[in-house]
Every structure is written in structure tokens, then in C-alpha cells.
């Protein structure tokens, strides 16, 4: 099955990409057993994403005429961020995520960016493996969270960094 990676076309790709955003939000809800992630209308997050002033390009993965994944490039100065990378569950494990990452890396290089980052949720083990395999092996920044409310999910033990224990 061939995969076409091409630029996002708002007029035709919007519904599929919004659905992919909802699917991604659903996965985050499952990772953390928290139905409140993404709010009452998870698709609204996609609309907010489209208004991000740093959004400098979006690409979709198409198989058999269907959008099965998308990614975007956020740019701040000489730094690029991959946000998000989404591949529908039924199309995973076919290298589509890697192809999207390769496309965005080529675009970042063409624009003269110095580096790319990506910020997956820590419980997305499959995503972390994909990003690691694609060359995202340097930890440049860590986001630490202090939970101030009684959340719907439990934090898991299991990550050590510089001799410090963290939950995720």
C-alpha cells in the first residue's frame, strides 16, 4: 500500500484531521484514564491548533485516497517543533509516522532550522519508540508537573533522571 505525504489542504483535509485530533485526544484520555482531557469537545482543540501563530506548515499522509495521519511544524526563531504527529490506529505500524517525521525534518532543514523537538506524552510508549528510532534521542528539556488537583488518573512510578525518581 503506497503512502503519499503532501501538504495539508484545508478545504478537503480539515474533517479528517479534526477526526485524527479527536482520536489522539481519546488516546491521551486512555493513557491517563482521564475523560476530562480535551474537554467536552476534543475537536475544538484542532481549531485552536490551527490558530497557533507559530504553525508554519502541515502535512498529511494519504493512503487509498484517505487521510490517515498528519503532522505540523511550529517554528520559533531557529527552533522547530513537531506538533502533533498523529496516525490513525488502523494505519499504524506501517512506517507512516516515520514518513511524516522525515518530511517535516526535510522541511525544517530546507528552512535552515537548527534543530527539531517533539513532546510526546510520557505514557505513549509506541510513540516514544517511533521518535527514538527516527533520531529524536537527545533530551533537551523536561516538563515537570505538580498536580494541584485531585485528578481522574493515577501517576505511575518508574522514571529516573540524574538519580531522581519521577512519576508519569
TrEMBL record:
Top-rank lineage group of the source organism: Bacteria
GO molecular function per UniProt: acyltransferase activity, transferring groups other than amino-acyl groups
Family matches, as CDD domains: NAT_SF
Alphabetic keyword roster: Acyltransferase, Transferase
Sequence ranges assigned to domain N-acetyltransferase in this UniProt record: 3-162
UniProt-recorded name of the protein: GCN5-related N-acetyltransferase
Organism whose genome encodes this protein: Stackebrandtia nassauensis (strain DSM 44728 / CIP 108903 / NRRL B-16338 / NBRC 102104 / LLR-40K-21)
Lineage, top ranks: Bacteria, Bacillati, Actinomycetota, Actinomycetes, Glycomycetales
Amino acid at each position: 500500500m503506497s503512502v503519499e505525504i503532501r501538504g495539508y489542504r484545508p478545504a478537503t483535509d480539515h474533517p479528517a484531521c479534526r477526526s485524527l485530533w479527536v482520536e489522539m485526544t481519546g488516546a491521551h484520555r486512555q493513557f491517563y484514564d482521564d475523560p476530562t482531557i480535551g474537554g467536552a469537545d476534543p475537536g475544538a482543540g484542532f481549531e485552536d491548533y490551527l490558530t497557533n501563530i507559530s504553525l508554519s506548515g502541515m502535512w498529511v499522509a494519504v493512503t487509498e485516497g484517505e487521510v490517515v495521519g498528519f503532522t505540523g511544524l511550529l517554528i520559533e526563531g531557529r527552533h522547530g517543533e513537531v506538533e502533533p504527529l498523529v496516525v490513525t490506529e488502523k494505519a499504524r505500524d506501517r512506517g507512516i509516522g516515520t514518513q511524516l517525521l522525515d518530511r517535516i525534518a526535510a522541511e525544517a532543514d530546507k528552512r535552515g532550522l537548527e534543530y527539531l523537538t517533539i513532546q510526546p506524552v510520557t505514557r505513549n510508549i509506541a510513540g516514544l519508540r517511533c521518535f527514538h528510532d527516527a533520531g529524536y534521542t537527545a533530551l533537551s528539556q523536561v516538563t515537570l508537573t505538580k498536580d494541584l488537583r485531585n485528578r481522574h488518573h493515577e501517576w505511575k512510578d518508574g522514571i529516573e533522571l540524574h538519580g531522581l525518581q519521577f512519576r508519569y
